[in-house]
Amino acid sequence: MQIHSLQGYIQNIFLVEDNNQLMLLDGCCRADVQQVCDYIRNTLQRPLSDLKLIVVTHMHPDHAGGAHKLRELTGATLASHPNAPRWYAGIAGRTAHAIDVLLTYWVAGRMGKPKTHIWYNPILSPDMTLTDGQTLPGFSDWQVVYTPGHTDHDLSLLHVPEHKIYVADLMVMVKRQVTAPYPICHPNQYRESLQRVHDLQPAQVLCAHVPPQRGEDVPFAKLISEAPKTPKNHWYSTKNRISRKLGGQSREH
C-alpha cells in the first residue's frame, strides 16, 4: 500500500495505490480534476480506469467538487455517507453551497492561488453509501469511521494494518496551530469524534489542511477542551450578528 500526496487547490489530496488499483480518499476541488488525471497517467503511468473508488468525506467544495467529473472520466465508484446528498438540498442548502464556494475562493486568495473554475453540482449522486465500520469495496484493509461534527456526514478512513487514518477536516491549521475547523455544525458530536479518533491511537493522522502528523503528536486533549460548545456556522453567525445589531438598537432607544 502506498499513499501519494498531491497539493490541491486549497487542500492535500491523497491517492492510494493498493492491490494494483487506485482510490481517492476524497473528491477534491473541481479545479483539481486535471491534476489528478495527469498524475495517474504521467507520474504513475497507469490508465485512468485504474481509479476504482472515490470517497467523498463531506460535501464542501474542496472535498466533493471534483467527484462527479472524476467519476465521469475514470469510471470509478463514488461513495459517501447517506446524508451527503441532502447536505445542500433546498433553498437554504443552495445558499450555504454558494457561501462555501465563496469561502473556498477566500482561502485560495489567502494562499496566493488565482481564481479558477470550482463550481460543482451541490447534490451528490453516489453509487453507494458507506456506514460506520464498513470495509471499503475493493480495498479490504480500509475501514470507514463515522466522525460527524464539522457536518452531519463526515467520514474518516482508517488503514487498519498500518493504523493510518485520514480525517479530512476534523482539524485544520491556523497560524501554525492545529485547531477546530469552520463550520462546527454539531459541537457535541465533534468532540465525540475527536475522542474516538484519539482512542483509536493512530500511528499517523492525515488531514486535508494539516501536514501529516504522528498520532501521538496531535493535541487531541487541547482540541477537545477548546472545541466550541455551540454551533459555529453561517446561520448561527448571521443570527448572532442580527441579535447584536438589534440589541444595540434597543439600548440606543
From TrEMBL:
InterPro entries: Metallo-B-lactamas, NDM-1-like, RibonucZ/Hydroxyglut_hydro. It comes from Thalassolituus marinus. SMART domains: Lactamase_B. Residues 231-253 are annotated as: Disordered. Residues 10-209 form the Metallo-beta-lactamase domain. This is MBL fold metallo-hydrolase. The lineage of its organism: Bacteria, Pseudomonadati, Pseudomonadota, Gammaproteobacteria, Oceanospirillales. SUPFAM superfamilies: Metallo-hydrolase/oxidoreductase (SSF56281). Belongs to the metallo-beta-lactamase superfamily. Class-B beta-lactamase family. Pfam families: Lactamase_B. It comes from the Bacteria.
